[in-house]
């Protein structure tokens, strides 16, 4: 096993990797004093948290195709040990993104919340984001071993395929929120699509017939 694979197996290392992106806004806002971030700090944090949530969801969805394509890779095996942690982290960042959105729209005052939610229903890109967040909440709650036993393996697996629906909704949410189809969204989602296509090819490709037994 390589040193990198051993490092990836460490839960402490993975926790650090997952937490650091959440702390990143402190650098341009308080240390570097970046004018573009300081122009609208809450909006900067809002976009950053949404981007991290999107990136983590796509990352965890790559684990399955990578395991099919490279089943003996120590790095891929190490990554798959943290599937639940990375998936739940995607939900946590998405929830923080939504909370920041509420604050940005004036949700600190409860009287404003009905109006904010009416706006969500009127704007398709916000509605898709809210639906994706609801799916991620459902997947996070049912990620526990007790939920797997309660649902049964087949139903649990079918339920967690909703993660792909959430990914598609988030791709639209990210693209529509910027009013154009940004290259950033393509860079995030195209590798996942390619890996899934390769997984389908490997799973369903014709296999050579077994050699006839010698008399």
Automatic annotation (TrEMBL):
Q: Which GO terms describe its molecular function?
A: FMN binding; heme binding; oxidoreductase activity, acting on diphenols and related substances as donors
State whether keyword Transport applies. Answer: yes
**Keywords assigned by UniProt?**
Iron, Membrane, Transmembrane, Transmembrane helix, Transport
- Domain Ferric oxidoreductase, residue spans: 49-170
Alphabetized InterPro entries for the sequence:
Fe3_Rdtase_TM_dom, MsrQ-like
- TM spans, by residue? 12-30, 45-64, 85-104, 124-147, 159-175, 181-198
The question of whether Signal is a record keyword is answered with: no
Q: Where in the cell is it found?
A: Membrane
Instruction: Write down the membrane topology.
Output: Multi-pass membrane protein
The GO cellular component terms are: plasma membrane
Secretion signal: which residues? none
For this UniProt entry, what is the primary localization, expressed as one broad class?
A: membrane
Q: What is this protein called?
A: Ferric reductase-like transmembrane domain-containing protein
């Amino acid at each position: 096993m390589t040193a990198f694979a051993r490092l990836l197996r460490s839960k402490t290392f993975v926790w650090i990797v997952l937490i650091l992106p959440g702390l990143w806004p402190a650098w341009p806002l308080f240390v570097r004093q970046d004018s573009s971030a300081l122009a609208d700090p809450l909006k900067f944090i809002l976009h950053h948290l949404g981007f991290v949530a999107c990136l983590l969801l796509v990352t965890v969805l790559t684990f399955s195709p990578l395991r099919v394509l490279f089943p003996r890779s120590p790095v891929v095996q190490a990554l798959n040990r943290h599937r639940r942690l990375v998936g739940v982290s995607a939900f946590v960042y998405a929830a923080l993104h939504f909370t920041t959105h509420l604050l940005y729209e004036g949700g600190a005052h409860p009287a404003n919340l009905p109006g904010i939610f009416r706006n969500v229903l009127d704007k398709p890109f916000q509605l898709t984001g809210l639906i994706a967040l609801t799916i991620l909440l459902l997947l996070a709650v049912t990620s526990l071993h007790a939920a797997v036993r309660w649902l049964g393996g087949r139903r649990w697996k079918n339920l967690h395929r909703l993660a792909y629906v959430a990914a598609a909704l988030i791709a639209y949410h990210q693209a529509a929120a910027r009013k154009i189809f940004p290259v950033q969204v393509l860079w995030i989602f195209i590798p996942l699509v390619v890996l899934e296509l390769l997984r389908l090819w490997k799973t369903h490709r014709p296999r050579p017939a077994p050699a006839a037994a010698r008399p």
